[in-house]
Amino acid sequence: IGDDLMLFEETVPERCRYRVQVILPVEGPYDYLAPDGGDEGERFLPLGQIVMVPVGKRILPGVIWGGEPDTSVPQAKLRQIEAITDLPPLKDELRQFIEWVASYTLFPRGSVLKMVLSAPQALESVAGQKLYRQGDTDTEDTSFRITPARQKVLDLLAGSGGWTAVELAREAGVSGSVIKGLEQAGVVEGYLEVPDFSFPLPPSGIKGPVLSEDQRAAADDLINKVRAGNFAAVVLDGVTGSGKTEVYFEAIEAALGEGQQILVLLPEIALSSQWLDRFEQRFGVRPAEWHSELTPALRRKTWRAVSEGKAPVVVGARSSLFLPYEKLGLIIVDEEHEASFKQEEGVCYHARDMAVVRARGCHCPVVLASATPALETMINVQNGRYERLVLSGRHGGAGMPDVELVDLRFDKPERLDSGQGWLSQALRGAIRQTLEAGEQAMLFLNRRGYAPLTLCRTCGHRLQCPHCTAWLVEHRRFSRLQCHHCGYSTRLPDSCPSCDAEGSLVPCGPGVERIVEEAKKLFPEARIGLMASDTMTSPAATREMIERIEKREVNLLVGTQVVAKGYHFPYLTLVGVVDADLGLFGGDLRAAERTFQLLHQVAGRAGRAEHKGRVILQTSDPQHPVMQTLKAGDRDKFLEIEAETRSRGGLPPFGRLAAVIVSGPEEAELDNFCATMARAIPTIDGARILGPAPAPLSLLRGKFRRRFLVMTRRSVAPQAVARSWLQGLKSPSRVRVVVDIDPYSF
Ligand code: ADP
Ligand code: ZN
User: Fold this and answer.
1) Which residues form the Helicase ATP-binding domain (predicted)?
2) Residue 89 CB–ligand 1 contact under 6 Å
């Protein structure tokens, strides 16, 4: 039989072989045979072609990758490409970017590719498939009733049309017959139309404001770079309100004029409604958006439009960096210092740094805009790797606010009736003055909920998340306790779960809800508004709150860091920071830098128009360099001190760092493997490996976590060190080892 088979194989004509990279967490690529071409014969597939291939029992997307197929494997052992998509092939630039990100982050190429092919809807052709949209709400069928299942489908379609039946059924969690029923009644409409995968091109001729001299100089510099079509990394450095957005809008206009696509990365797309409105005012159309909340229909439309060059401007979260642009001509990273650009789940990468890499591959400029550029970024300016354009003051000459420090050790907030107070005499006085003058005040505390900790007065027990090393946070609005790490939530118990004492659980410390409570008591006449990520549940809710503030229906705003981000409130003249020290503790090497950036940004909310602003920082450590430099308004001094501290410790950007997080469900098994890892630590010149230590959250979502730190000299790549150390180690199946290059929080 064996001989027969050999004979048979030889008579089959040799088919073309391709190396296909699939979207699994594997290095790959694997070899496949060309698809059966039928009568027309084989079709030649170019590099980058997106195809569907069988892997095990599944059919997965993959991409024709480079490299020589292994011809020693007999043809009969190979599987065949299942289908060829009708999408444009991924460009060389994008495939090289994927390679680069994979080798830099140490994540498998397939995992990085998966971020690119992140819109499965886009991969399927919808040609010849019915799409659905809203139909007539008045049906003639009198027996027709809107059941809850039907309502779910209608709610989805109210958001946007263009869904396939399969997508609708999956998203609404209903069966296909529900959609059929709706269609028969005419309440939804199925149509066979080639959908329009394009976003409008902004009409030319709309002009921005007349720029000031240094704005003009900065804009012209960027415009020249866009037209030259070369790589350049440019830091656009100017205080909040100095007109950075107006300046990069000019660069966007120039890139549009060149027929290029533009990517604008914003730290939190969900909070960017004001930015989108402003873009629309300036350019007359809305840009394409890319983030996790898009409907399948919009995902498909956007992904396709981007790949066909029919989405001129894309605004997105960090994931939009992995879209298949047809002709990317400019990248803007707004608020480049923001921590949310660092992705710490899945592939660990920093979107700002990867934006620079992508821009280099696309031969286009990348603009890093910030009022408080990251230390890394400023060191890159000093090294001459990045250029810097400076906008000197606030547009229209509005002054910077005065910053005052209140020493909480001396101006202790007194107790209000039975509860504790959090606002000092100085801050209360300033709020009163501001409100009496008809202006607005804002109280900032970067903590959601009512109280960060609930404690039993009888036995001292603290309520902790069962799945994480974290206290449960009380949210009085929902009468619940919540874990801010895993989302676990439970009702506030009447008695202590440990000693059963009744009514002895007390909230400790303030969250924003508690500040609202205190403010209501102190200023009963004030119109108080609360803004936190969990109260702003939708873009519409955010928009409504912003409108209320703009119309001065709210005159005392209490908020978490969502209020720090880019909003302009012309009548806001006082900012009070309830606990300026909050971010300074914890094992984050950037704690001081991040506190400085956040407080600087919050302070920048005060006094934007003709009114001078005033900022009050409540602190227990007024001598801290962060407080002193904020008071002096001396950002560069802060960076100098920070650079010195980090350079002394060999910390980034003066040394390099990788965190190796080892996690598993069994503590003993985990510690065992960590001990094995520790014994295998190699001696490498210019590198140290520290650990294992408990990771900052040593229990997260029910997994125990340990951490090693790889610290190297600038000249030694932590990737190489980590690779040579981890290569030979095989972890037990339930233990995961994840490397985070340039870790952020640890
Ligand atoms: P940044 O991005 O640095 O915070 P913006 O570009 O948002 O600054 O500018 C702050 C405010 O000043 C915005 O309302 C903007 O429209 C306005 N502005 C900036 N430059 C000009 C200008 N040259 N003419 C008129 N208004 C301007
Ligand atoms: Zn938890």
Assistant:
1) 225-391
2) no
Nearby residues for ligand 2 (ion, Cβ within 5 Å): 465, 467-468, 483, 485-486, 488
33: its two tokens: 């045979």
Instruction: Quickly count helices (H) and strands (E) in the chain.
Output: 21, 32
User: What distance in Å separates the CA atoms of residue 699 and residue 339, rounded to the nearest whole number?
Assistant: 22
Strand runs (DSSP E) across 424-516, as ranges?
Answer: 440-444, 453-456, 473-475, 480-482, 489-491, 505-508
User: Whole-model pTM?
Assistant: 0.89
Name the closest-CA residue to atom 6, ligand 1: 243
Mean pLDDT of the chain: 89
Enter the tokens of residue 563.
């209020």
Mean pLDDT of 100-116: 96
241 lines ligand 1 (CB under 6 A): yes
Ligand 1 within 6 A of 242 CB? yes
165-223: pLDDT as tens digits = 888 888 889 998 898 888 888 888 888 777 778 899 999 888 899 999 999 999 999 99
**What was the ipTM of the complex prediction?**
0.98
- What gap in Å lies between CA 716 and CA 687, rounded to an integer? 7
Tell me if 245 CB under 6 Å of ligand 1: yes
Atom number in ligand 1 closest to CA 210: 23
Residue whose CB lies within 8 A of the most ligand 1 atoms, among 245, 280, 572, for a mutation test = 245
Residue 23: closest CA among 121, 115, 124: 115
Ligand whose nearest atom lies closest to the CA of 484: 2
In the reported structure, the alpha carbon of residue 593 is separated from the centroid of ligand 2 by a whole-number distance in angstroms of 27
Q: Tens of pLDDT along 510-535? A: 999 999 999 999 999 999 999 988 88
What distance in Å separates the CA atoms of residue 711 and residue 503, rounded to the nearest whole number?
A: 49
- The ligand whose atoms approach the alpha carbon of 703 most closely is 2
C-alpha 671/C-alpha 705 separation (Å) is 9
148 prior amide bond cis, ω within 30: no
Q: Looking at ligand 1, which atom is closest to the CA of residue 246? A: 6
Burial class (CB in 10 A: 0-12, 13-18, 19+), 25: middle
The two beta strands, 328-334 and 365-370, are: parallel
DSSP string over 468-482: SSSBPEEEGGGTEEE
Alpha-carbon distance 240 to 609, whole Å? 12
Indicate the pLDDT class of residue 729, thresholds 50, 70 and 90. Answer: very high
> How many residues are given for the chain?
746
HSE on the CB side for 577, CA within 13 Å? 34
| Beta bridge pairs of residue 489 | 482
Measure the CA–CA gap between 621 and 409, rounded to whole angstroms: 9
- Taking alpha carbons only, the member of 593, 581, 607, 641 closest to residue 240 is 607
Question: Which strands sit side by side in the sheet containing 58-65, from one edge to the other?
Answer: 30-33, 17-22, 58-65, 50-55, 83-84
Ligand 1 proximity of 601 Cβ (cutoff 6 Å): no
- Cβ–Cβ < 8 Å for 558, 550: no
